[in-house]
User: Fold these one by one.
Assistant:
Number 1:
Amino acid sequence: MALNIGSDHTRFREIVRGKVRENLRKYITHGEMIGRRGRDPVSIPLPQLDVPHFRYGKNGTGGVGQGDGEPGQPLGPGEENGQGQAGDEPGAHILEVDVPLEELAGILAEELDLPRIEPKGTANIKEEKARYNSVRRVGPESLRHFRRSYMQALKRQIATDTYSFQRPRVVPIRDDMRYRSWQTVMEPVANAVVIYMMDVSGSMTDEQKAIVRTEAFWIDTWIKSQYEGVELRYIIHDAAAREVDENAFYHTRESGGTRISSAYKVAASLLKEQFPSSEWNIYCFQFSDGDNWGEDNRESMDLLKEELLPVANLFCYGQVVSPYGSGDFLATLKNTFGEDRDNLVLSEIPNRDAIYDSIKKFLGKGK
């Protein structure tokens, strides 16, 4: 009887998908999957998922119809003496399963009821572009592939014994000619840029940064599933701001005062110079404990109102609760803009358990 392996595999993937959905809040909270890049699959530990398997007996213990026995006697080997005391709990069944990030994004969307992003501009419009990635026998002389033509002529002359090692001359004929050729591919006219901004002053602890990193991973997973390509940029600040790489973003800790406006200035300059809003869909995610120099709040609000909100698809501010931060900046944002502005989303993240709801709030508008 032939085994329907395809349907068995499909059924297994359905079970895995159900288990991931069932435990998604736990995975988001604890961040087991952080650290993977690109389209790499993510290894997820799935508890209590039994996979059918063969269990083999020991060699040399006989078989069916061999040796002495009585009707009803078990065929398996007898019990052996063990060491230690018996337990009263079942053993743990843990299976590591690889789940593609695309599938993970789909599960995230289903579980958090996320709408698909509606990009502005031409981000999802694709145009035809020619890539010279093949060789043909015919074509214009301007696209003649000299090396391929030479090699073809050399192979022909050696095969027909017309090549002289004493007088090495390679004379191509028409049939030897090779020409560069192109393949038409569809490429997006524009993509998305995600700018992360984080306060790294002394009031932001390692735990707050871990919360930010976990939330950013899931935000990346969802946005990358909506666009062909995504550029990521990172800005850190205390009283001054600068653009850094991802590693520095998550591991830098400084002391001193806090000026959130400094981060807004770097972000606005970055967008003007490299990512004009006419060509890019712009997503800004800012994380802070809300502790800002009081006199800087007005400048921060002006920059947000005049420079960032007019060009951003979405600007999200997540306030992570710190034992050292004042938390006043969130209140300033609410008083200035309210909580119903179309492309501004505010979220308070007191602990890891709040990451799940914060992600849903940030991405739930489908911008």
Number 2:
Amino acid sequence: MPVKEWSENIIVGELQDDPAFSEDTNLLEEMLETRPGCHCVLDLSEVRFLNSSNIAKLLKIRKLVQSTPPGKLKLCGIATSVWGVFLVTGLDKIFEFCDNVTMGLTSVQIEGGELG
């Protein structure tokens, strides 16, 4: 399953290019709406193209996650072609990025005070 509960407070999504991207982000939105304050780590390592609809979905997920503290969203494994989209649109300044899912999970646990 590309979207799964990693723990009680963390959801991990492994996104693909469309049409799976849209389907997975729809499922993710439904999960986040029922779990306020949940962290979300998204693996985009298999995504090679982002269109405006995909960007809108990511922005909606960001809003859902951050609407209830301490929710954090981390985008991981960004391909060079996708990173260019974030840079050109200025979205590199509003999203938080990690090299891989392991680093993303560690980051939300440390920032969320779930370790130690």
